[in-house]
Amino acid sequence: MLNRIINILGFGTGAFALFVVFGILVAQDKTKIESQKPNISKQPTVTSNFQVKVESFLKMFSDDFSPSKENLIGTGQGYDFENKTNPIWTKRITLKSKTSFVNNYQQTVYQRLYFSFFQYENSKRTLTALDSLLNCFGGACTKLKWDAKSQSAKTIPCIYLINEKEIVACYINCEHQNDFWMKLKDEIEKTFSNGTSRVMETGCGGPINFKTI
């Protein structure tokens, strides 16, 4: 039977033996390469406690808000943390209210919440991010000093909460300041503060307030 196969293929006995050996070596190399490939399907998705907390926090708004394609960068007010401070994880999302309300200018509008969440490798990188924020805050790149009184800047209302390795930020439009905004700031502090969290918050153009909670 073997001789018949050799004759059909047109190989001599020596050439056929060489062909078989070559095939075995190729198969072994292929097996070795496959064994060295990482098994992606078995690698767990690494999710930090902060990321879980962010997703849980955002779910609280699902009944009254929907995600919007609008973004904070488009307002000209948001700080570009991604390009300036290299966080290891970032989530930006704009939520738009499903129902309208009458704003401070007696206009019927939909509330928009510009959320940003940043996670850093260590506390040093978080402090670097905070310093960068204070050195150029708002639309006019105003330099701020932490805890100094009576500071103002070209900015829409916002709150920043800074932990050891995390920064949480939320902006709204100037004409959207209302009781809901006050409750939202309290909810952000309640959810993400840990007893040593630093908070910077401001109204439309100021005053800029600082505290530790």
Description of the molecule:
The structure is a single chain. By secondary structure, the protein is an alpha+beta fold. Helix content is 35%, strand content 24%. A 7-stranded antiparallel β-sheet has the order 1-2-3-5-4-6-7, with helices on one face. It is globular and about 45 Å long.
Strand content: 15-25%
Tally the helices: what do you get? 6
Envelope shape: globular
Cα(first) to Cα(last) distance is 86 Å
Q: What's the helix-strand series?
A: HHHEHEEHEEHEE
- Unreliable spans are 15-22, 31-44
Structural class: alpha+beta
Helix content: 25-40%
Core attributes:
single chain; 35% helix; 7 strands; 213 residues; seven-stranded antiparallel β-sheet
Summarize the structure in short:
This protein has about 210 residues and is α+β, with helices and mostly antiparallel strands. It has six helices and seven strands; from the N terminus they run αααβαββαββαββ.
